[in-house]
Design a protein that fits this description.
nine-stranded mixed β-sheet; globular; 23 strands; about 45% strand
Length: about 400
């Protein structure tokens, strides 16, 4: 199964390691670094088969989580476990970074100890782990520094549902759902969409008493091309009826993830039109942005990033909305537009640039960043929520947000 876990920083240095089936030599990390030499950490394959064994790795928040595994293990199980490790660290510390791991080394090591037993995933649910290992507080840090253990035995209220403990009581019963969608798109210079897909998450915050059994249905449940469900969801019922039936964990959790492939998109929220002219040692550019389809909602945090050639020396521009910056080191122009509605005037920026040598092109693509609140671009909508085996009717809140993922406009 899973033998060892090594967490590496951006330079390949080991921050923390955990062994479950005997100590594995650190030489596996050296071998991994040699195999991936010359690649960025994002480019490294998630599964690497080598004469020294099988490696499975993920890259999250500038850190590499590398495991050594036996040949018979399912790679997707290992990948899911690694993502659970990262998500749990975020749950405990709000973020994952080299500094966070070093500052909370004892707690991180305790979590890894509880999450796996001799190479087999054991306890991976935040509710159960928080009942054993307290989230870090100032008092906990002082006690750990003094060598006093903050581990504790479960309080006996754990139920036969591993992700939820019994005896949960709230004065006001509430459950909230956030539909968060990221739009990845590549658009050519003529405005035609080359590729477009949506990656979405349904995040929940459950504050319900007792042991409620919920069913959540959607208006349009069959739009998903791929999906991943939280273990609390009854998979068979969803496969057959496209209804989410589950006993929710207490607190925050990710209910499901999904992907929608827009093979023939008829609209995008924004339209970016770049015009670039190249001269011998410079050129000029004009970029305009129009709001096309946002269901009447304003586009927020709108920004255009224009990576330019390394020989560009200087840029002078004039936007009619927002402000721009040009980084002379990275040769990236960023135009921060802000909040725009369809009725507002069209954002435009015009400028010139000079170069130290003759240019072939000023750049290859422009990137757009934006956010639209209370809008799900896939059209996903919650239809109804029903509660069984409890006598209350909870308050239900649903919010949607669409964000740009890798939104690229080719020049």
């Amino acid at each position: 199964m899973i033998s060892s876990l090594f967490v590496l920083n951006s330079t390949g240095k080991i921050i923390i390691e955990k062994h479950w089936r005997g100590v594995v030599s650190r030489s596996v990390v050296d071998y991994y670094l040699n195999v991936t030499k010359g690649m960025s950490q994002e480019e490294a394959l998630p599964i690497i088969d080598t004469p020294q064994g099988n490696y499975v790795q993920i890259y999250r928040d500038s850190l590499t989580f590398l495991t050594t595994v036996s040949a018979e293990v399912e790679p997707l199980l290992v990948l899911e476990f690694l993502h659970r490790v990262v998500d749990l660290l975020v749950e405990y510390f709000d973020e994952v970074s080299e500094t966070v791991i070093k500052d909370n080394f004892v707690t991180v090591y305790q979590l890894l100890e509880e999450m796996m037993d001799y190479g087999y995933p054991l306890t991976t649910e935040p509710n159960a782990l928080k009942d054993i290992i307290s989230p870090p507080t100032i008092i906990n840090r002082v006690m750990n520094a003094a060598g006093v253990s903050t581990d504790r035995l479960p309080n006996g209220t754990l139920s036969n549902v591993p992700w939820r403990k019994s005896g949960v009581i709230y004065t006001n019963n509430e459950i909230y759902f956030d539909i968060v969608e990221e739009l990845d798109a590549i658009v050519d210079s003529n405005g035609s969409v080359i590729s477009c897909e949506i990656n979405g998450n349904i995040l929940s915050n459950s504050r319900l008493s007792g042991m409620p059994d919920l069913t959540l249905s959607f208006v349009n449940p069959r739009l998903f091309d791929d999906y991943s469900l939280h273990p609390c969801i009854r998979h068979g019922k969803y496969e057959n009826e496209r209804i989410l039936s589950f006993i929710p964990p207490d607190g925050h959790f990710k209910l499901m993830s999904y992907r929608v492939d827009l093979r023939h998109p008829t609209y995008l929220p924004i339209y970016v039109k770049p015009q670039i002219s190249i001269y011998n040692n410079g050129g000029k550019f004009d970029i305009s942005v129009s709001i096309r389809h946002s269901d009447g909602k304003p586009v927020e945090n709108l920004a255009i990033t224009f990576p330019m050639a390394q020989c560009i020396e200087n840029v002078s521009a004039s936007p009619n909305i927002g402000q721009y910056t040009f980084d002379r080191t990275t040769k990236v122009l960023r135009w921060d537009i802000g909040r725009v509605q369809m009725k507002d005037r069209m954002p435009m920026i015009s400028g010139t640039f000079t170069a130290s040598e003759k240019l072939g092109s000023a750049g290859s693509s422009i990137l757009a960043d934006f956010q639209i609140s209370m809008y799900a671009i896939s059209g996903l909508k919650v239809d109804s929520l029903k509660v069984f085996y409890e006598g209350y009717k909870p308050y239900k809140g649903v919010r949607s947000v669409t964000k740009s993922g890798k939104f690229q406009i080719r020049i």
